[in-house]
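Handout, section B. The chain below has 151 residues.
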Amino acid sequence: MSPRLLVLLIFLLPPALRAQTTYTFKIATDRMLFHDQVDKQQKLFSGKDGAFNLSADESINLELEDVLIRQVDELQEKIELDSTITGQVKVKSLKSLETLLKVFNQNKNKKDFPATIAPALLDAFKTCMYLDRHSESIEPVIEDNEYGVGK
């Protein structure tokens, strides 16, 4: 094998072997970074072994994985495909979703922020997104939820 070909393979092969996130929907190029940032936060939920272990209880882990992975992916798709909002609002929604996941990652399993709060947290987030888009206050959502969700 020629040295040139070997050098070329060394530089071209590693990117091809990296796992790539694929989406089942079309994403505008200017928003791809924001989707990737949400995905990056989702990947932090898995341990080094790739297992989703936020709780000692396997059934709770399955529920949390559903909320934090599948439902967040669905929300990303819903945001991206919503033709009633502008690109700026989509970016705002994706950045807010990334922040939600980042704060969840930082605070999970603290005394006032158990991992099991995830379903209520995502539901409250969706409600707040709706209210914000309709120029309504999110205060009722904060008042109606427990401290960890409203925090």
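Note. The helical segments are 3-17, 32-43, 58-81, 87-107, 118-133, 139-144, 147-150. Compare this with the example in section A.
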